[in-house]
Amino acid sequence: MLFGQSVFQSVLERLKAEHETEEDAEAPAAHRVAGLGTALAFDVMEGVSVATQRVGQAYFDNLEHEAAASVAEKPAPLPEPDPVMPDHLTRTTPQEVSAELAISAADTPLTLSEKRRAFARANHPDGVALPFRDNATKRMMLANLLIDEALRRLR
């Protein structure tokens, strides 16, 4: 290290000093790009002066052409068919839900929690189509009630 710099840093400083010319050192910092001292030129329709042309409109004109091209390329989406209710969501009585859960005296808290999770995977309201969520909610409430009751009896 030379004077608190690594060898690499000192080489970079030396190269920078060699390439710096007197002209670069004396030139003021410019905040504009050279050659762009005038405003941007837009295509103007024949017979329309530049002064009356709205500069911001050119952007929207190009958007219309791009949007029309993208619409022409994409085929129209097919309408989605109406959802069909699964058979198990039609069974909403406590007896039917109880039969599906098949809770027995041999069940343990572990098996009951497994049954709850398995039932929720198949019947949770978030996992079914919107028109069938009421039935799924009823089924989940009944299953939770039956499993909670079985857990209370085990204790």
From TrEMBL:
<protein>
    <submittedName>
        <fullName>Uncharacterized protein</fullName>
    </submittedName>
</protein>
<feature type="region of interest" description="Disordered">
    <location>
        <begin position="70"/>
        <end position="90"/>
    </location>
</feature>
